[in-house]
Write a structure and sequence with these properties.
Elements: H1 2-29, H2 34-46, H3 48-63
Helix pairs in contact: 1-2, 1-3, 2-3
C-alpha cells in the first residue's frame, strides 16, 4: 500500500521540482540587479513553495519596464 501512495504523490513532487528549477533559472537569466537576484534565489531556496508562488505573481512583472 505504501508504493501506491508514492506513485500517487510522485507526479506532484516532480511538477513542483520542475517549476522550482524553472523559477531559479528565470531569476538568474533576468535583467534584475544582482542583489535582487540573490534575494529571489534565497527566497526560492528557503521557502520553495511559497517563494515560487510569490515569484510567480511579483517576480516577472518587477523586471519588465514599460516603454
Amino acid at each position: 500500500m505504501e508504493i501506491f501512495g508514492f506513485f500517487l504523490f510522485f507526479p506532484f513532487l516532480l511538477v513542483g521540482l520542475v517549476l522550482w528549477v524553472w523559477a531559479l533559472v528565470e531569476v538568474l537569466r533576468s535583467g534584475e540587479e544582482d542583489t535582487a537576484k540573490i534575494l529571489w534565489v534565497l527566497i526560492l531556496i528557503f521557502i520553495p513553495v511559497i517563494g515560487w508562488i510569490i515569484w510567480l505573481f511579483i517576480g516577472p512583472r518587477a523586471g519588465k519596464k514599460k516603454s
